[in-house]
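Objective 1b. Sequence-to-structure analysis of Helix-turn-helix transcriptional regulator.
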Amino acid sequence: MFRVNEPTGGTGRRLTKNPLGPSGEHVRRNVTRVREARGWDKKELARRVTELGRPMPELGIGRIEAGTRRVDVDDLVALAIALGVNVSALLLPPADDAQEPCGVTGVGDVSQEAAWDWADGQRPLVHGDDPSAAHLQFLMLARPSGRRMTDMPPAPGTDPDRQERH
């Protein structure tokens, strides 16, 4: 999707890509955070990502961290592997505070706890008209059959103490 920016010559319009959404903002901040925690400069991260078969110059890392270069799915996976984290560690804030909101592209603000539960395959972020059905469908589709939880977490809006365990 494109949006109209300031007019230029010719057609009178200049098209630009969408700005980063909340998930893109988390990625750019987390790449910097994890890279610095490892004591690496941008050149070192670029070298490691390139060694994984995803060529990325130091300038590319700088642009990702500045928010001027978008990260596609293949970049995200390579960055996560190079940094020694899972993709969720790049997509979400580095906290799990039930009270603090965080933005998730396509959903808006949710609690950090809800975002991490979703990323961990424990519950959906959007429930629709039937929260129990949405929860069950999520649990069935979010992971392959051999990786699904054996104990079903409580559905939203239910009393966890009254939930029967399987």
